[in-house]
Write a structure and sequence with these properties.
alpha/beta; homodimer
Chain lengths: 398, 398
């Protein structure tokens, strides 16, 4: 049964572009055509000014909210998208599209290569976060939206948000990067690479050519996902969630079967992941994250020089050791230095990197307030004045 | 050339016991016979009172110091063991033995099972840290040492140290557990399990039966080691060591070859590891660590109730996120509660878990002072009085 506060039944749509002229990637390689899978929730208003673009993380897709026919679980951010929720579909027109390189309907290694009639596999060109965003710009153009009210997302979604602000500052009113970085760290690259190595090590991966074979590199992909799962949690949350509890037994078995609850959790989620994600896409999407670096000579100021009119809500979480708060603080420092309007919160949480999805109540309050304030400003006659709220408030008082 | 401050050329010896009666493990399984590989450095004094037992971590062995004939690199803790070094071989008789279950000469899965004439493989019984220590007690008996001057070690070595103090408090004068825990956390179990899953996922592992085959589960073991390597470093030390530097190229290659210096480091060390370590031993040793828990109903006080006469130097490192300082603080709290003499240091370091091996200067000062104080006390007529140093000092002043 679909809950009453859900946006309800939704369906994924596709948008195909670059049919006549190739889409040029950062690498110099081209794609022709390019397809993006996307979903929308709520209604675009007459001024086309109420659109919010949601950007997903590593393993996400366009299905961010509501239910697909027959599904028991809603989209990945249903907690925050829907009528009366943080991204309130009674007020906003919410868009979410699957990133380039992924496997949920957008062009990626599982897509049929028109030149060969077979899936691209490793023949798919390596993409960057900037390429993902450039494709999203095409979608927003297609929807005839000149300026997004907001772009929001966590983790790799947050990287896309930061790239929107850096490369297309005129196209968004506000940006909400959550639990993210403007510069992928060596530790993040290391965890990405271990996941990729686990996939390469699986003989069934076969240099990426497995789509027509009975065996897929599920074992390697599962190990990659298990590593990922540890990094999304925290020492503290694992103590609370699992402790040293045994799984289905009362004493040590002195064998190599699954014994501890935490082992069971990892195995279960690792293998479940192989039923919904593609190993090659895992390589492409993690590689895009590794390349992500908006800095020049160690400084982020240049990247955000054009983003002075964008309003930012930057959020990090105290127990997120994968994207520690200093990443967000560096972004905030650069934004402040260029004179942008930034609200920053380092939220006390035990839930590690996953907190941006799990701290629903805190996030709902925060997002509702931030978006509500902007919405009220937007609808005032002097909304064209892009000065910070305090300045506007002063004007109103005069 | 062997440096002049090295203990020089050394050789591994073996000690075999349980030839007539089986050695009973915590699981109830038995081993008959049991062999321990060990090395000693320095001279045992006439009173047999100057012996220090060094316990190694996951992938270590008996070769802790000096050089084996033909080797270019010394033993794993040569920085701290030798003439004039922290564990000063001019004063102390230093012993290090390879743990049960490992692959450096002690009984483990690579050992020939006398019942079959073939390597045990997974037929080797699962061992615990307590089993490892009980075998070390046999070695110490064999060397006719009634009381060790000290037992010291980091990481899994520290677990053995804590178990010596808990189970054989009369057999040691002092204990130095470094960067360790008395209770393996779910995060530690999770990282162990991911390493094991990487090995299981390698078809060459073949349920542990690969000793007579040309292909070994090197790919899986390498991935396990890569995960390990990340956890031994810190975000900060990786920034300093690698940053986002590329390896052997000046710009992104937009392919899946090794590009970043940190990827090269992981791959190199992962594969190097497979030339020196056995995949089955990796399973056994990590499993022993996962079982390690000295607490009863969440409290460590019971474990250390008999250790009030042992002098402890407990050390943790601020950037060690694998064995965060709270683990050591829990040990210190319990030791203090039972009235043991504890010195605790939480050392400011950027080097993560590896700090216990890398912070040589700090560790040398610390260990030298601690051991020197005990040594002077030991040689005073009232040394039998096992009260804390301060009390002894007062006596001396009277």
């Amino acid at each position: 049964m679909i809950p009453t506060n859900s946006i309800g039944l939704v369906a994924t749509q596709t948008f195909t572009f670059a049919e006549d002229a190739p889409f040029v990637l950062d690498s110099g390689a081209t794609l022709q055509p390019v397809t993006l899978a996307y979903e929308t929730y709520g209604q675009l208003n007459a001024e086309r000014s109420n659109a919010i673009l949601i950007c997903h993380a590593l393993s996400g897709g366009a299905h961010a909210a509501g239910y697909h026919t027959g599904d028991e679980a809603p989209g990945w951010w249903d907690d925050c998208i829907g009528p009366g929720k943080a991204f309130d579909t009674d007020r906003f027109f919410v868009i979410c599209s699957n990133v380039l390189g992924s496997c949920y309907g957008s062009s990626g290694p599982t897509t049929i290569n028109p030149a060969t009639g077979k899936p691209y596999g490793l023949g798919f060109p390596v993409v960057t976060v900037q390429d993902m965003v450039r494709a999203q710009v095409k979608l927003v153009d297609h929807l005839r939206i000149n300026q997004l009210f907001c772009v929001a997302g966590g983790s790799m979604g947050g990287m896309q948000v930061l790239d929107w602000a850096a490369d297309y500052p005129q196209r968004l009113r506000a940006a909400i990067p959550l639990a993210t970085t403007a510069r992928h760290s060596p530790m993040l690259i290391a965890f990405s690479e271990v996941g990729r190595q686990a996939i390469y090590a699986d003989p069934a991966w076969n240099d990426g050519e497995y789509y027509d074979r009975p065996n897929k590199p599920d074992a390697g992909l599962a190990v990659a996902r298990m590593v990922g799962h540890i990094t999304y949690l925290s020492d503290d949350s694992m103590q609370e969630k699992f402790g040293r509890r045994l799984h289905g037994q009362e004493r040590y078995g002195y064998d190599f079967r699954t014994e501890f609850e935490v082992e069971n959790y990892l195995k279960y989620n690792g293998h479940k992941f192989t039923r919904r994600f593609d190993a090659n896409s895992y390589l492409y999407v993690t590689k895009a994250m590794d390349y992500f670096d908006l800095s020049t000579n160690g400084s982020l100021m240049g990247a955000f020089a054009g983003a002075t009119a964008v309003k930012f809500l930057v959020v990090s979480f105290t127990s997120d050791w994968l994207y520690p708060s200093y990443h967000s603080k560096e972004v905030v420092k650069a934004l402040t230095a260029v004179g942008a309007d930034v609200t920053y919160l380092d939220i006390l949480s035990r839930w590690g990197h996953d907190a941006f999805l799990l701290e629903v109540e805190t996030m709902t309050g925060l997002l509702t307030n931030f978006l509500g304030r902007l919405w009220r400003e937007e609808r005032k006659p002097y909304a064209v004045n892009r000065k910070p709220f305090a300045a506007n408030y002063e004007k109103e008082a005069q």
